[in-house]
Amino acid sequence: MKELYTNFFSKKETEQGLIKEALKNNILFKDLNSRQINIIEKIVHVRKYSAGEYIFKQDKPGAGLFIIVKGKIIIQKETINIDDLNEKESLENSIITTLNENDFFGEIALVESNSYRSASAKAILSSLLIGFFKPDLLDIMNTHPVIGMKILYRMSQVLSKRLIETNLGK
Amino acid sequence: MLFFKNHIQRETFYRMSLLIFIGLFFLIFISLIPSFLTPILLSIISTYLLLPLVNFLERNKIPRSLGVLMIYLLIFYLLFYALQNFYFKFVNQFEGLQKDIPNIVQIQLNNLQNFENKYFNDYPFIKNFELVSRVKEFFIKFSDKAILNTPKWISNIFTLFIFIPFFTFFFLKDSRAIKKWILNLLPNKYFESGLQVIYDVNKNMSNYIQGRLWEAFIVGVLTYLGFLIIDLKYALLLAIIAAVLNLVPYIGPIVAAIPALLISFYYSDSVWLVFFTLLIYLIAQLFDSVILIPLIFSKIVNIHPAMVIVLVIIGGHVLGVLGMIFAVPLYSVIKAISDAVFVRIVAK
How far is the alpha carbon of A168 from chain B, nearest alpha carbon, in Å? Predict the structure, then answer.
């Protein structure tokens, strides 16, 4: 009986708990109270990816960010190598970074208009992700402006941090 | 690709075939379930109309379900108020017109008969057309059909009055959940593109429907005011007809002018009333096409007028008047979907 219960009810509950926890831990939603987190939870999309599956591919249009609840994701960039000797072109995948639980990626697409993905994201373990997209952000800004403002403030922090990192990298 | 001279030809071919394929799919789908579709389509219209209000209330911290209930109460109150004030006026005009129609028709038939007699000597072939008997036959058939179908119409309207508020309530309250449910059905590969398509289609549809209804409302008010100034009988009824038919592009306004012109012809002592009636329609249409359409629809994709007429005719064949009204927005939905499918999936 207990097994039946865990199979039918508990599993979903723990997944929901995990999602709420992941949202609370994410920097974008850090300023939100639990009531506001509940509102966000109703809007975000939960997706499951199997190992080896692409979340998105390079140069395709993008609409928003993904937060890793469970699993492992690699971000890789395809570059075209031109072999002068044999006059052949070959594609090479170089891994930029590996992301784990509670990391997020693709956030530029959330604010950029007509955004295209600069790299591909691929699951290397079976993964549970939360998707938060531009239409969702616009919806939140329209119906819950306070929540929208808090998210945008954190978003600009993330972007400015990236900017500083890139400048230092030079 | 041997068939195509260059990639542009290939691209055009893919785009066209996608558009046709998705369009045919929609046509078949719609023609299979027309009776079920009417309340759903009308509920979608009212949902798009009321959605900004629900969002406004939510922005002011009123939960969605409570917001929808408040709006419903307000609408019922307004309907009740309108019924109290306008119902008798409307019914009186409608009944009056019902009584007058046979007279109007008879006078026009007499005119036609005179015309036939007058020119019969000079142009004997006119007799072959049998104009009078044909027009008479048409009116008898038409009125028979109208009388026979009245109970059916009433029951249809009654069902609509139950179903539309019901569907609209859930569309308004659960619009997010419905969107999420549709997106959950999509495989991972198409998920992000699907999300963007749904968002674009949604935005276009809501702009289009709100725009068209405002346009119809303004045209109706303008026509009503004009008719009041020239003191035309049945002003309210004719203005309502003008507003509703204005939703059908190009063809609607022309059809709407016919009863008004007939009535003005019947009641006037001089030609001036007919002239002013026509002038009011022309002013309203001019205002619509010069000021309202550029103002309201500047953001919405332009479709060639010839294409619009073709769409309206196809819509009329499949779904009647509702199809004529919905042909253009449905086409833009189909085009948005096929464009998105092309950009995100076929290209590259």
Answer: 33
